[in-house]
Specification:
- The complex is a heterodimer of chains A (301) and B (175).
- Chain A is an alpha+beta fold.
- Chain A has 2 domains: 173 residues, Muramoyl-pentapeptide Carboxypeptidase, domain 2; 67 residues, Winged helix-like DNA-binding domain superfamily/Winged helix DNA-binding domain (Arc Repressor Mutant, subunit A).
- Helix content of chain A is 54%, strand content 11%.
- In chain A, strands 1-2-4-3 form a 4-stranded antiparallel sheet.
- In chain A, helix 1 packs antiparallel against helix 12.
- The longest helix of chain A is centred in the N-terminal third of the chain and has 24 residues.
- In chain A, 33% of the residues are buried.
- Chain B has 175 residues and is α+β, with helices and mostly antiparallel strands.
- Chain B has 5 helices and 7 strands.
- Chain B has a 7-stranded antiparallel sheet, covered by helices on one side.
- In chain B, a hairpin with a 2-residue loop joins strand 5 and strand 6.
- The longest helix of chain B has 31 residues.
- The termini of chain B are far apart.
- In chain B, 37% of the residues are buried.
- Classes of the chains: A alpha+beta (301), B alpha+beta (175).
- Chains A and B meet through helix 1, helix 6, strand 5, strand 6 and helix 13 of A and strand 1, strand 2, strand 4 and helix 1 of B.
């Protein structure tokens, strides 16, 4: 059995902790700036969702923008390790975030996971849960993050009107791509491409029959999911401005952070109410409450 | 007199309340400080200490305005800060240490389990802990593969102990 390295119960030096805290605060400030300016139109998000290989996904403008911005903020070089319908995994080699922490034997990059969750949820409009599944601080070779997207918004964004029209014809009994192409005035090659997308999302089976999900989507999904897609310019058209805003946010946070660590207090331990200890000693919180209310009364407050 | 150096995080509004029904005990405007092993909250009169080691979770309960909940056994402290980035950064700074606590809790329960105490009531009694909490830890240990379906510690379960600890546990178990 491998001897586990001891995990520190508390921080290293306080000065180092403050330095880490300042760096994290800077990153949070820059992240907020990036998220506020990076709303992506559904038509661009769709390009990423429709990818079936890492190579395809890494060529999508949305991913390239995301990679640049995450690097700019200080999360490191975000690469895609795998892509599936509802799950995308990203990895970062040599993560600057992981390097901040003086911890061995456990995952540490919560800020990167949160950044991904915010980007997917707020900028792409896809509610997502993100978990760090590998971390160099836990002994892995790189840090890896799993983005689990909620299926409903994925269906909402991944399929466009043409896909929905094809699905409608299939539910109504049409099976041949030539016939569908003719009915929709579409090229047959395009119909085949779109049929593959419907297959990928399990809306139709390999024999072009609608699946249960496909029928449900056709019957109810259109109504539930019907939303007029808002058209606006993708954020990468203003990449220079956003990069500058991130840079300004980092500088601003750095200036403000100088105050962090300078505003200090010497706290007298004797004058402090230790909430953990008191909660343990008192059998119920009511006792704790009355105890301190009594202290307040005695103190004439 | 023992003094602790603490660095100001932000001007905050903080509420200290009972965990299970949310009854608020203290609701104040004040300041929040970070020290080597603790967080401190003060309204200028009283100082309240949250030991980092005792934190069970830190979660965002509201985004606008940002409210962050620091959970201790029996007690929650909910904080609203002027600067959201500072509170979020503090959460990310502390989260790895909180996970450490969860692993320690699992490890403690696994030790007793290995020694043959396999009823949650028994473990709760030995640890003087709440039964519900022990049940949650055992359930997590099973769900995450520390304990197999036969109730034995898996390789993953045993890997949380050092060789020395396993040796000692075997000695105790074998009398």
């Amino acid at each position: 059995m491998v001897e586990k390295e001891a995990v520190p119960r508390t921080f290293g030096s306080f000065a180092k902790t403050l330095a880490i805290y300042q760096k994290l605060t800077k990153m949070e400030t820059a992240l907020t700036t990036m998220i506020e300016r990076s709303k992506v139109p559904a038509s661009e998000t769709r390009k990423l969702l429709r990818c079936t290989t890492v190579e395809q996904a890494e060529n999508v403008p949305l991913y390239q923008y995301m990679r640049d911005m995450f690097n700019e903020i200080g999360f490191g070089d975000l690469r895609i390790s795998s892509i599936d319908k509802f799950i995308i995994r990203f990895y970062v080699e040599d993560s600057p975030v992981a390097k901040l922490y003086d911890i061995k034997g456990k995952k540490t990059c919560y800020i990167t996971a949160d950044a991904l969750a915010q980007f997917f949820t707020k900028d792409l409009g896809i509610s997502s849960n993100v978990e760090e599944i590998k971390c160099v601080n836990a002994g892995d070779d790189f840090c890896e993050f799993e983005v689990r997207m909620q299926p409903l918004p994925v269906y909402q964004i991944a399929l466009d009107d043409a896909d929905k029209s094809i699905l409608a014809l299939i539910v109504k009994g049409k099976r041949k791509s030539a016939e569908i192409a003719d009915m929709l005035g579409m090229d047959e090659v395009e119909v085949d491409y779109r049929l593959n997308i419907l297959k990928n999302y399990h809306l139709i089976d390999d024999d072009y029959n609608p699946t249960e999900i496909g029928i449900t989507y056709y019957q109810f999904g259109g109504k539930i999911l019907a939303e007029i897609e808002e058209e606006f310019s993708p954020p990468w058209e203003e990449r220079a401005k956003i990069t500058q805003a991130i840079s300004d946010a980092l500088s601003f946070a750095e200036a403000v952070n100088e105050a962090l660590g300078t505003e200090t207090q010497e706290v007298l331990k004797e004058n402090v109410i230790n909430l953990a200890e008191e909660a343990k000693k008192s059998k119920s919180f009511a006792e704790l409450l009355s105890k301190y209310m009594k202290k307040d009364e005695e103190g004439g407050e | 007199m023992m003094k602790v150096l603490a660095s100001k995080v932000d001007d905050v509004a903080f509420e200290i309340g009972r965990k299970y029904d949310g009854i608020i005990w203290v609701l104040r405007d004040g300041e929040m400080y970070l020290a080597h092993k603790d967080l401190y909250f003060t309204d200028g009169q009283k100082w309240y200490c949250v030991p980092i080691d005792a934190l069970e979770s830190i979660s965002v309960v509201s985004e606008n305005p940002l409210k962050v909940k620091f959970s201790l056994p029996n007690v929650n402290v909910i904080v609203t800060g002027k600067n959201a980035s500072r509170l979020l950064a503090l959460r990310h700074l502390l989260l790895p240490y909180i996970h450490d606590r969860e692993i320690r809790e699992i490890k403690t329960v696994l030790k007793l389990w290995y020694l043959g105490i396999r009823s949650t009531e028994g473990i709760a009694t030995v640890l003087e802990s709440e039964l519900e909490k022990v049940k949650a830890i055992v359930s997590r240990a099973m769900g995450e593969g520390y304990i197999d379906k036969n109730g034995d510690l898996t390789e993953k379960g045993l890997s949380v102990f050092s060789e020395e600890e396993v040796k000692l546990l075997k000695e105790v178990r074998n009398g």
